[in-house]
Amino acid sequence: MEIASDVLGTQLVYRTMLDAVARPGTVKSFAAAARELGSEAGCSPAAAAIALTLLDREVTHAVFLDDGGKLAAFIRRMTFSPEADAASADYVFAEGHADAGAVRSIAGKLKTGTLEAPEESAMVLLRVDRFAPARDGSGEGEDTLVLSGPGIPGEWRCAISGVHPEWWTQRERLNAEFPMGTDWFFFTDEGLMMAIPRTTRVRREAASWHTRR
Questions:
Q1: Does 22 fall in a domain?
Q2: Residue 172's domain is classified under what CATH number?
Q3: Quick check: is 61 in a domain?
Q4: Tens digits of per-residue pLDDT, 125-173?
Q5: Which of 1, 11, 14, 5 is nearest to 185 (CA)?
Q6: Rg of the chain, C-alpha, whole Å
Q7: pTM for the complete prediction?
């Protein structure tokens, strides 16, 4: 697929995100937009494409990626979105494979909105290794998830590789008081995405965790 302009590229990313939210746990692709928007960004092409889609002067962000500050520099240069800490950021980019201490440090501070304004919460954007077919007995470092809730007929099984178990513990805590909570997107560098919004219930069936970095 050819992307004619940055506007069309960001529209494609946005539509992909909406589709992912409508069908939690299903894998969507914005690879063409990631190549077009992020190929010369000097950082994760997918993260760059997401940043261009979501960020502007009116919203804040925090970046916790292991990329030597490349995404943060790209965001400053291209979006002018103010940088913030985890406690006040509207959008938070982080590594799925971060260790437990780092996960608690980030997730422990995230905004969950209020009863009057639940939309004033953080969106979590986690970089992961890959999405894999769900199966019994996950591979090392791979979570098989059983999802239920709005947009899911019955239950849906999916698998994500490269997410530390502590993220799931923190997600459950953050989303304990609906409608407050956080919406989560998982993405790979090449431009695959999965959404698990706050309305989705998650049961994790996991094998052993292995830190890859």
A1: yes
A2: 3.40.50.11310
A3: yes
A4: 999 999 987 654 445 557 799 999 999 999 999 999 999 999 999 999 9
A5: 14
A6: 16
A7: 0.91
CA 119 → CA 62, 90, 149, 158, 198, distances in Å?
18, 10, 19, 27, 11
Q: Write b or e for each residue in 38-62: b if 16 or more Cβ atoms lie within 10 A of its Cβ, otherwise e.
A: beebebbbbbbbbbbbbbeeeebbb
Average pLDDT over the chain, rounded to an integer: 91
Residue ranges with strand state E in 98-182: 123-127, 130-132, 142-149, 152-161
Tokens of 55: 């960020």
pLDDT value of position 205: 84
| d(C-alpha 84, C-alpha 62), whole Å | 5
* Spatial CA neighbour of 156 closest among 171, 165, 146, 142: 146
Domain count, the chain: 1
Query: Which pLDDT value is given to residue 81?
Result: 98
Tokens linked to 203: 């049961």
Give the DSSP letter string of 54-93. H--TTS-EEEE-SSTTHHHHHHHHHT-PPB--TTT-SEEE
Domain containing 186 equals 6-127+166-203
Is residue 43 in some structural domain? Answer: yes
